[in-house]
Amino acid sequence: MNVALKRLAIPARDAELFFHRFLVPLWRVQPSPDLCRLALSIHQETGWSWYDSLIVAAASTDGCPTLYSEDLQAGRTVRGVRIVNPF
What's the Cα-to-Cα distance from 73 to each of 22, 34, 47, 56, 63, rounded to whole Å? Predict the structure, then answer.
C-alpha cells in the first residue's frame, strides 16, 4: 500500500478498492501463534527454511491437500499436504 499510495500516487479510494477486491480474498489463513508453532514444528521435522515451513503450515491449516513447489521434496506429504513439483 505504501508503494501504491506514495510512489505510484494511486488515489486512496482506488487503493482501498484493490485491497478489498484482490488482497483480502487471498488471506484465507491469518498469522497466529498456533500457525507459527506449527511452522516451527515443520521446520524441525523437515529442515526446510522458516518461510517454506510457514507456507506448508498455512496449507495444512487451511486443509489444502496439494502444494505445488519446485523447491520442496516432491512426493513427500507433510501434515496432510502433498508436495508436487509442477515441472
Answer: 30, 24, 11, 12, 19
Q: How many CB atoms lie within 10 A of CB 36?
A: 14
Confidence of residue 16 (pLDDT cuts 50, 70, 90): very high
Return the SS3 of 82.
Answer: strand
pTM here?
A: 0.76
Cα 10 to its chain centre, rounded Å, is 26
Tens digit of each residue's pLDDT (9 = 90 or more) over 41-70: 999 999 999 999 999 999 999 999 999 999
**CA 87 to CA 72: how far, in whole Å?**
12
Sorted by where each begins, the domain ranges of the chain are: 1-30, 38-84
